[in-house]
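Hi R.,

Here are the chain sequences for the assembly we discussed:
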Amino acid sequence: MKVTVFCENDEGLRNNPRVRKAYPNGFGQSIAAVFGKNTVFVPHDKGEDGSALLKYLEDTDVLVWWGHGLHKYVSDEVAEAVADRVKRGMGLIALHSSHMSKPFLKLLGTTGTLRWRESGDNERLWVVNPAHPICEGVGEYVELPHEETYGEHFDIPAPDELVFIGWFKGGEVFRSGCVFNRGFGKVFYFQPGHETFPTFRYNSIKRILKNAASYVAPKHGVGPALECKHTPAPQKR
Amino acid sequence: MKVTVFCENDEGLRNNPRVRKAYPNGFGQSIAAVFGKNTVFVPHDKGEDGSALLKYLEDTDVLVWWGHGLHKYVSDEVAEAVADRVKRGMGLIALHSSHMSKPFLKLLGTTGTLRWRESGDNERLWVVNPAHPICEGVGEYVELPHEETYGEHFDIPAPDELVFIGWFKGGEVFRSGCVFNRGFGKVFYFQPGHETFPTFRYNSIKRILKNAASYVAPKHGVGPALECKHTPAPQKR
Amino acid sequence: MKVTVFCENDEGLRNNPRVRKAYPNGFGQSIAAVFGKNTVFVPHDKGEDGSALLKYLEDTDVLVWWGHGLHKYVSDEVAEAVADRVKRGMGLIALHSSHMSKPFLKLLGTTGTLRWRESGDNERLWVVNPAHPICEGVGEYVELPHEETYGEHFDIPAPDELVFIGWFKGGEVFRSGCVFNRGFGKVFYFQPGHETFPTFRYNSIKRILKNAASYVAPKHGVGPALECKHTPAPQKR
Amino acid sequence: MKVTVFCENDEGLRNNPRVRKAYPNGFGQSIAAVFGKNTVFVPHDKGEDGSALLKYLEDTDVLVWWGHGLHKYVSDEVAEAVADRVKRGMGLIALHSSHMSKPFLKLLGTTGTLRWRESGDNERLWVVNPAHPICEGVGEYVELPHEETYGEHFDIPAPDELVFIGWFKGGEVFRSGCVFNRGFGKVFYFQPGHETFPTFRYNSIKRILKNAASYVAPKHGVGPALECKHTPAPQKR
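And here is the predicted structure of the full complex:
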């Protein structure tokens, strides 16, 4: 399974002391490390259109996307290329504030809006679908000592599979783990992962992400673009 | 719209001082009052098989069910009659601990199990589907100063429509408002309503229950029992 | 309820003798006539970007879209304006070959591809959700003496509600009536309606379309654009 | 993976010349042969309550059920034991006329009714979810030269995953392959398989059944019965 991690890496993020403390080896690098040695990390800097991703895209089974402040710089062409490859079978894991990323919104068709607060309150991530492969080995819930608060209403289509619901100390709930099927591909949205907290270094979160990558990976390759087919009537016996 | 409220009314419930304080006009009576004057209240006492309901069942558009400690006394025949009428078009509103009632489980096919705690903590009931008719006029969430805590994992089939998610101060979340379609009928499960708290006297809760009754009511009557039909081939032009 | 019908009306369509025979009062005009006197018909001609629709869009409760050969001329801005209004509450009825129209694909996030054949074979449109409001008064199926054949695989997300499945004499099946919820709005895709057959003049089809318009119409108006909300923690009691 | 096949085997079935011609090695035996050598075949004869199954049930990963005329003889206890084990994680494949079998109806909560005709017309089984593991290697459709006709409306809850839609020459359509999640278990309903046609001997059907067994098999064992859990508040950091 070939995983590519596309993650913001601008100066503000790199030099933020809280990010450096939470991720001494680098933020995007740490996300990539979850998925094993052969994972490619494609950093996204301010002003870049994201086309650095295109070099790896057609060789990617699962694309992991983390974006927050730089969504607007990603070109429509890159977003369309990602969405297109998902529809042909590639898995996509959209992390945290990627709920507003262009490829995610193209695939969902809604606004992805939500309520939020940088409170650093704790979150408890509850499993609501314990037989789901993404939850395997996770237990009944995951405790996150600090996370950015995300709250409903989250403007997404009803997910094909709802896996996690987040509880936040400040009083919010959130559909924190959702699977959406689009064409031949699967999209997993996962809410935790604010850059100033070491979320991606917790074993339970790593477990979920690895489970998710296996779950959304294409089982039989990524196909060509679909087209409408004119077909004669099938011959009947 | 003819509403029938089937609600426990045993001595323990009637004489509980906390219930009397929360519902001076009676518990089941107060639930019935939500739905207007013509609503029938069918009390359910310890040891009774529930057959008192049968007198009203075939004249009921929406059945509201509240049960907790007396589920086991309801006979399979009564439970089957209720489930059968739902499949033919009657609406069912299953309140609070009715998640373990026989008709609800017959219609869902799962165990309905959950985690719980009588903490009296506060609950915040979040709307996750703001365009849904059951939420009309409710706002973004409903604050309940005290409720029994119910928590995931709630063993239900994925609801056809998820309307509310509850947040509990003690750290739990719960799919608190769920619509299930079964045959021609609709079932709305609604989690709030522990007998010692005046939940059913709050305007926002009354609003939700009235919206729900309109939503699950049969639009074109309740039909006969379905049967498999042997049919000749439809004639083609 | 204010209905706007956006429908192709280029010379090829207008002057096609088969279309004229099937719709002596005009094709788009006949679709508009289904929805009553106050319905606005916005014709779409070759090369036009669809912006003629914008004059009516913000006053529209339900937009009916019929497109086939001119999808590419509709500008992204117009498609985005339609999709945006749907997410804010407007209903959309996408007819027949509108499965490839820009607004529909923006809202669905898939390719909308299918297999097809202009056979003129007959179609039988089966009701698979008889309690659904869109089927009211329709019976068990609708017989269409001639329709263009559409067949699976139809590349759409799993519909929130599947209402009709089409049977085609040549051997195909199709998910012919599908409801998708997107934000505050509802989208109904309906497969029948090739321009050379008098489909929109049949009473059963008119009934379905009128039912659908009532079903997807916003119940409480169309709201402003959603935005992410920064919110302080709700105060708890 | 341990598969158990519970299949009718009464004298009428055994001695029917058409069944013998279609399945020279025996009908239930031929179904069992699809799943490999270690599969247990539990025959069900007229008047038997099905308790012969109980000997194998707790050692079964995937139960395959074929019933038609003998549903009524299966005791409620046996049906409940099957449904209970599914909710704890066992996979269930309900074949053909098992749409009216007791365990299937207990798990679904609807009547399972449909329209039917023993026409021997041909069926074309269309894949409507080509990325689903159950379809792997199957192609766009499967041609069945002769099958009993089953038609909508099929009274089931909206399936969690719709995989196949059947087309019948006589004019019907049917949701022929449906996955339902119930508790920790998965149920796959599959419509083809009338005893007088050699359906279960076709390679494409064998492929689907083997795919389905892998898909519904428990990935992490079958657990104990779920119970409501009283839990103290989780300790927060």
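Residues 3-110+177-216 of chain B form a domain with the Rossmann fold fold (CATH 3.40.50.880). The mean pLDDT of chain B is 96.

Let me know if anything looks off.

Best,
T.
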